[in-house]
Amino acid sequence: MATTAALSEKQKQFLQNPYVGVVTTLREDGSPHATVVWVDLEDDGTISFNTAAGRAKPRHLEKDPRVSLIVVNAENPYQWVAIGGRAEMTTDGADPQIDRLAKKYLGKDEYPWRNPEEQRLSVKIRPEHLDSSGFDES
Amino acid sequence: MATTAALSEKQKQFLQNPYVGVVTTLREDGSPHATVVWVDLEDDGTISFNTAAGRAKPRHLEKDPRVSLIVVNAENPYQWVAIGGRAEMTTDGADPQIDRLAKKYLGKDEYPWRNPEEQRLSVKIRPEHLDSSGFDES
To answer: Is residue A138 part of a domain?
Structure first.
């Protein structure tokens, strides 16, 4: 297992695969709450995911922005990348992002389950911890 | 997504597949720390995993036993079971457990990476939260 400060090129390539991530936020009592998300690697190397206002994840992150995200290779569970850090939530770019993720994960040009009453949110993770397994540098 | 108090029979069957789990513990500062584990469903329905003394997970759990574990179907990421609760660590049965998990995940009768200097630990989760996706009852 390697701990490094920034994603390597191999890790960035890995994150371009449509492997889901497990994101863990903290409930109000500080206990961990895990769910499955689609993962976006933005052009500037920021790792982010998309959610919607009112769900548990953004509610937790408003109280405590600390979050972990781990992406495991669906074909090889011994290869994974995990980051931990602080979440920054924004509505900016959140609608195009969910369409981009629908392309990555479903092969569709538009997110098929869009709900006009729902406010999408993009959650960017400012990394403080980075671990990985199954890369040459491990 | 369904929240129920106990694993259904379908969820128990699901957990007999060799799908890895993501376990999240809390660092001393309360931030979430995620890693990949093999998952055991014990005969009495307890969900547990195996680790070794001195690693980050047991160190974190000694300070704060709160833990989450999520198991995602490797072929269908929209099917998953997540539990959250308190961990109880024991050396009792930890050596047979790692061999049982080697059988489940590697098809081998004995854990091939046993280190005689290492004390294996079995970590049982006493569930307080149970969520799932992709089951009929969802």
So the answer is: no
Residue A65, domain member (yes or no): yes
Tell me what ipTM this predicted complex has. 0.92
Pick the residue of B1, B31, B81 with the most A CBs within 10 A to test the interface with A by mutation: B31
Number of domains observed in the structure of chain A: 1
Of A24, A75, A80, the CB nearest to B24: A24
Q: Of A32, A72, A77, which is closest to B32 when you measure between CB atoms?
A: A32
Asked whether the beta carbons of residue B68 and residue A26 sit closer than 8 angstroms, the reply is no
DSSP character string of B37-65: E-EEE-TTS-EEEEEETTSHHHHHHHH--
CA angle B55, A48, A71 (to 5 degrees): 40
The answer to whether the CB atoms of A36 and B67 lie below 8 A apart is no
Quick: pLDDT tens for A72-106.
999 999 999 999 999 999 999 999 999 999 999 99
pLDDT tens per residue across span B41-98 = 998 889 999 999 999 999 999 999 999 999 999 999 999 999 999 999 999 999 999 9
Q: Which domain holds residue A8?
A: 2-133
